[in-house]
Design brief:
With about 325 residues, the protein is of the alpha/beta class. The protein is built from 9 helices and 15 strands. The strands form 2 sheets. It has a 9-stranded mixed sheet with strand order 14-13-12-11-7-10-9-8-15. It has a 6-stranded parallel sheet with strand order 3-2-1-4-5-6, with helices on both faces. It is globular and about 75 Å long.
Length: about 325
């Protein structure tokens, strides 16, 4: 069978990584790339370097990866759907809920595979945590806490931390628990002189009652990507920077020191740092999308799921703006 013909539009910081993976992806030929601003990272490597989507479509694409700025996702994605081209759109799916709805509907109506690049779902440590939760190793989940902190990235100019970074935590929390968000309450801050928020603190509730907390900023002089999932048998700690997963079990021994036992509620048990194969998340994401286009069983992030994440992110911004808890309807 002939290789799939893939295209890439958007050759910025994220686009260069997509180009690298697509160039070596088995069963796929990256036939052309496009960006109105040229090729700042030199990813074309002899392939046609084009300025517009229209030129890219002339190369008879089976599918296309979209890594343009968020504001252009709807325009580019809708054009791909109209041309009958499957697409994986970088997260977030679109700049607001209405645009995300239109884009998801365009691919559904056309009967095409539309996916969203929520890469954290493909982090091996989070995939391990998801599998272990599905096997009931943690028991009932009580709380999910995420911390996503770093200095400001020069690549971002069109959105704040909610749409750029918190969408990662919204999606991974909903996915790893298999529960949608029903409520959020948020506070934002503007400390770096930009028009978009650079800090957000969010509390939330999932459909099954799980409580969530998310701290995201571009103001911390170190990089942190941590998810803590606490349940009735202990807690999983996921470091997605290193793809590490650690389990801290509730202790089974009684604590004879009465005052300490009363204070702690649970005792400290054994800790296990799991070992497992660590494959690059972006490669796993592209493999899943390739397989979906081929009609194989594959777990991509659908546009319907991407829409739910955008809807929740917009509720976060509304909560911060109005200083009220926002209820999220499906």
């Amino acid at each position: 069978m002939a290789n799939l013909r893939a295209g890439l539009i958007g050759l910025g910081m994220m686009g260069r990584h997509h180009a690298r993976v697509l160039a070596g992806l088995p069963g796929v030929d990256l036939v052309a790339v496009a960006d109105a601003q040229g090729d700042p990272h030199g990813v074309a490597k002899g392939r046609p370097l084009l300025a517009t989507l229209e030129e890219l479509l002339e190369h008879r694409l089976d599918y296309c990866t979209v890594a343009v700025p968020t504001a252009y996702h709807e325009e580019v994605g809708t054009a791909l759907a109209a041309a009958g081209v499957h697409a994986m759109v970088e997260k977030p799916l679109a700049q607001d809920t209405a645009a995300a709805q239109r884009l998801a509907a365009a691919f559904e109506t056309a009967g095409l595979i539309g996916a969203v690049g929520h890469i954290e779902r493909f982090n091996p440590a989070l995939q391990q945590a998801r599998r272990r939760l599905a096997e009931d190793e943690l028991g009932q989940v009580y709380q999910v806490v995420t911390r996503r902190q770093s200095p400001f990235p020069a690549r971002i100019s069109d959105v704040g931390v909610v749409m750029d970074l918190a969408t990662h935590d919204i999606d991974l929390t909903s996915w790893v628990t298999q529960q949608p968000f029903t409520q959020v309450a948020a506070h934002t801050a503007y400390k770096s002189g930009r028009s978009h928020e650079d800090l957000v603190a969010v509390t939330g509730r999932l459909a099954d009652g799980t409580v969530t907390s998310h701290l995201v900023n571009w103001l911390t002089p170190f990089k942190e990507r941590v998810t803590v999932i606490t349940g009735e048998r202990g807690a999983f700690v996921v470091d997605t920077l290193l793809a590490d997963l650690t389990f801290h079990a509730n202790g089974s021994r009684e604590t004879p020191w009465t005052e300490v036992a009363q204070f702690r509620g649970v005792t400290e048990g054994d800790s296990i740092r799991y070992g497992f194969t660590k494959k690059e998340p972006l490669l796993l994401e592209h493999e899943a999308f390739r397989d979906a286009v081929l009609g194989l069983d594959s777990d991509v992030v659908t546009m319907a799921q991407g829409l739910a994440t955008v809807r929740t992110a917009q509720a976060v911004l509304e909560s911060a703006r109005t200083a009220r808890t926002v209820t999220i309807s499906g």
